[in-house]
Automatic annotation (TrEMBL):
Pfam families attached to this UniProt entry: PAAR_motif
Identification of the protein by name: Type VI secretion protein
Residues covered by region (Disordered): 1-27
Taxonomic superkingdom: Bacteria
Lineage, top ranks: Bacteria, Pseudomonadati, Bacteroidota, Cytophagia, Cytophagales
Length: 102
């Protein structure tokens, strides 16, 4: 099976979790990659499991990445990998030319 686009610092994620006020959803945001500081993909730090996903409400991180590719002992994150804000948060975008398998 082909790999998925590698996720990096500042790539977009989707967060459909309802706001605590009940007036909408969190919406899209960006990844703040810090877990693999010496690993770069297209001049951006690589994103890994546990990296923060900027959201209107705190606590959103990358929940899961590749089961076979690791950077600094953490699973490499890819487009469509899930985030911790449920239901259905995921990484929306990744590199156009670097792909990571499972």
């Amino acid at each position: 099976m082909p790999g998925k686009p590698a996720a990096r610092n500042m790539d977009k994620h989707v967060c459909p979790q309802p706001l605590s006020s009940g007036t909408g959803v969190h919406g899209p945001g960006t990844i703040t990659a810090t877990g693999a500081a010496q690993v770069y993909i297209n001049q951006q730090m690589a994103a890994v499991e546990g990296d923060m996903c900027i959201c209107v409400e705190p606590g959103n991180t990358i929940k899961q990445g590749s089961s076979t590719v690791f950077f600094k002992s953490k699973a490499a994150a890819r487009q469509l990998d899930p985030t911790t804000h449920n239901p259905g948060g995921f990484i929306m975008l990744g590199s156009l030319n670097v792909f990571i398998g499972d």
